[in-house]
Amino acid sequence: MSGCEARDAKKLVRSPSGLRMVPEHRSARSPFGLDEPPWVPDKECPRCMQCDTKFDFITRKHHCRRCGKCFCDKCCSKKVPLPRMCFVDPVRQCAECALVSQKETEFYDRQLKVLMNGATFFVTLGTSDKSELMVCRLSNNQRYLVLDGDSHYEIEIIQISTVQILTEGFTPGGGNTRAIGMILQYKVPGSEELMQMKFTASEDFSCNRKLSASWLAAMHKVSEGGRMYRKLQK
């Protein structure tokens, strides 16, 4: 077990919003996770915050698990998976939040799984002219990019500043391109120095090239998604 996965144990907790499977140690939380929002107090929302319907004995109020606002059943009836908050089952969300959560489903169900399965690349560190064949994958807690070969590296995802995907096959008139590698820039904790790694897909077998291209595409989407999530959390 690598050092970054030594604290991956999880526990089942019950909150007002539902059952959640969360890391035992806060330091092991996924960088793509979200905290549960505080609920708008019942006394502060006499009407639905979407359609303005007045709450009474018949028209009950419900809280969206993603934004914490109060809605009537009509405006907050959808139950949608919310993996970013570690919910075990789909939870009640307002229409706007449900749409966002549904769009994230592909990100969690596909891209992160591809990255955790890993792929093989020739990795070049900094300005070195030597490369090393390494298996690259996302750690189970989604916090680190783990590289294993004769050497071993663990790069914290939140320390990655840029991801540049390298392609080939582009023509001036347009056409298909294929991801063949990437350049990763990141900071080492405790230092402001910017480090760089170059990843080049192995050309040994057709299946390896396809797997590497899928992994690179997922890495690109994760980096774009990570920037979007950081903006949303500000």
UniProtKB/TrEMBL annotation:
Domain FYVE-type, first and last residues per copy: 42-97
PROSITE patterns: ZF_FYVE (PS50178)
Keyword Metal-binding: yes
KW Lyase (keyword) present: no
Pfam families noted in UniProt: FYVE, ZFYVE21_C
Xref: CDD domains: FYVE_ZF21
Superkingdom: Eukaryota
UniProt keywords, alphabetically: Metal-binding, Zinc, Zinc-finger
GO molecular function (one): zinc ion binding
InterPro entries membership: FYVE-type_Zinc_Finger (IPR052113), ZFYVE21_C (IPR032031), ZFYVE21_C_sf (IPR038632), Znf_FYVE (IPR000306), Znf_FYVE-rel (IPR017455), Znf_FYVE_PHD (IPR011011), Znf_RING/FYVE/PHD (IPR013083)
The protein, known as: ZFY21 protein
Species of provenance: Podilymbus podiceps (Pied-billed grebe)
